[in-house]
Amino acid sequence: MTAGPILCERLRIPPFDPAVLKPTQWATAQQKAKLGNAILRFIALGMPAEKFTPTLYSRLSNMFGFIAHYNRTGFAQTWFDNAATRRDFLDQVAREKAELARLQAKHGGTATASNSSVPTVQLGLL
Questions:
Q1: d(CA 91, CA 85)
Q2: For the segment 23-42, what is each residue's pLDDT rounded down to a tens digit?
Q3: Source organism's superkingdom (predicted)?
Q4: pTM higher than 0.90 for the full model?
Q5: Among 32, 51, 94, 109, which lies 20 to 30 A Cα-Cα from 83?
Q6: Full domain range(s) for residue 35
């Protein structure tokens, strides 16, 4: 797996601010900001294998509709092995976010509201 052409430090500016994130039973606002910043840093660096930490694998494999695969190496080979798979990774993130917005528009409110008629959607950063 080699780092690809997705090198964009501007993805990291400004960093996620915990003050604007909503804490949930799964993560505090500070934890969400730290994760969001780690994901953006990883993408900005071109998604290199040496930066795909066990912590990133643990969270990303359960976000944005991804599955865990057999292990971190399998996930990395599937999503970060070359420019095409990295593009597919970003497309998957975008599709999942669009689906959440569609559900919110269809059912009203937010998909993370505890009294929502829609099952709770946990994407990690909302």
A1: 10
A2: 999 899 999 999 989 988 89
A3: Bacteria
A4: no
A5: 32
A6: 9-107
